[in-house]
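Narrative summary of target 7.
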Amino acid sequence: MRNILFLTIIFVFSFQLGMTQDVDAVINDANIFTKSGKIDKAIEKFESLGDHGSADIYYNLGRLYQENGNIAKAALNYERAIKVEYGHHEANNNLSIIREETDFDIIPVEEMFLIRWWKAIARLMSANLWMIISFITALAMIGSLYYWWIANRPELKKKAFVATIISPVLLLIVMALGNTSKSLATNSNFAVIMNGEYDMHEGADDRSPIIKDVEAGTKVQVVDSIDEWIKVVTADTEAGWLKSTEVEFI
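Modeled conformation, tokenized:
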């Protein structure tokens, strides 16, 4: 049994090492193409990695698309980099430049301070780390309850009682932050418009009245769908319908 477990660990480690080496080889090839000015080849290499989950790779891909003049794809990859790593300075900076240089005709609605503050705290750690902290907090709650129950000294019993009251509140807060962190990392309801020549319609039909022109690279939230049509909301909370082929999800 011990030998089987050892061989399994060796197999998993070897597989992960092989995958890492493959990714490194692709990145190295992409960097070589970039340095030699073969931007299309570099993009092709990065795109071949698929759903890699690396903020830096998304950023580099966005930079290449921006250099190639494909603003929509650049914005999409910068958004994906920020989704993976909210504080990615370069991706945030380049995305801001795109927003300033492109006429999106959208005035973003700012979130309430408390909501922004809560999300910022949730993004400080992954959902898994918040789960570990939740587990530790739960153990602390059980420990404080136990000491409150058995303590003989009044001052110790008082401290244990206070900890017993506070720890459940902390546990609920930490669990809520973990859920928010997970939601922010896995939320796939946001997309970027790829085709700037398509208009947002009032209904799920080409013959429906046009609400507004939409710029390629605009970030939208998808709130509903009917067949090949999706209902989206822009940053200024204006809603309309687009064909799903006109967007790519972040």
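The longest helix spans residues 2-35.
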